[in-house]
Amino acid sequence: MYLTDIAEGYRRIFDNVFKWIEERTIWHKIALSMGFAVLTGIMAQIRIPLPFTPVPITGQVFAVLLSAIFLGGYFGALSQLFYVIIGIAIVPWFSGGLGGFAVIKGLTGGYLIGFIPSALFIGLLTNRYVVFRKFHFQVMLMMIGVLIIYVFGSAQVAFLMRLGVSDTIRIAVIPFIAVDLMKAIIVACISTSVLPK
User: Fold this and answer.
1) With contact defined as beta carbons under 8 Å apart, do 65 and 122 qualify?
2) H or E element at residue 8
3) How many angstroms separate the Cα of 37 from the Cα of each of 59, 76, 77, 103?
4) Which CATH number goes with the domain that contains 56?
């Protein structure tokens, strides 16, 4: 009984959080989007280089998925747009403490651009259709969102390194699938626990 009461209290807290976010003015939501841009910048500093690919594993995807869940499609995408624009113009908060337009033109730039449509896709479907808030649908949405990031990222890697399809997949997609699946499952656990049903 005690655990049930804790779970119910936990559910009420997050119902109130989502209700609070939903009722905020557009300016508050823009500020929240900026907050998730900062979170993405912080998570970008979690960086694991791999010897067989020029693209490192980072924590950014985790923040992208969270932004879609908590802010919805439009403001989740806005948070990632802020992340990219501010990283180009002012703050060196891309992976490895880098910034500037050179990063966007480099091997990881396509992944960064892919964060924007990924958050939009996940957030829109999660907000509009309650059925997608179930765990297995959340994992599916997260992995499609990750696939969107892979499409943008691998296209740029292929273009810059002049690779064929199989080599591109080998160095720009396959090394990240297991880690990104773990991120998707963790965020799906969070989202199915906190999203209003």
Assistant:
1) yes
2) helix 2-23
3) 13, 9, 10, 17
4) 1.10.1760.20
Range of the domain at 160: 2-194
- Number of compact structural domains in the chain: 1
| pLDDT tens per residue across span 12-32 | 655 565 665 666 678 888 999
Residue 108 class from Cβ within 10 Å (0-12 exposed, 13-18 middle, 19+ buried)?
buried
Is the entire prediction scored with pTM above 0.90?
no
Query: Crossing angle for the helix pair 174-194 and 60-89, nearest 10 degrees?
Result: 100
Taking the C-alpha atoms of residue 124 and residue 37, their distance in angstroms, rounded to an integer, is 18
Left (φ > 0), alpha (ψ -120 to 50) or beta: where does 196 sit? beta
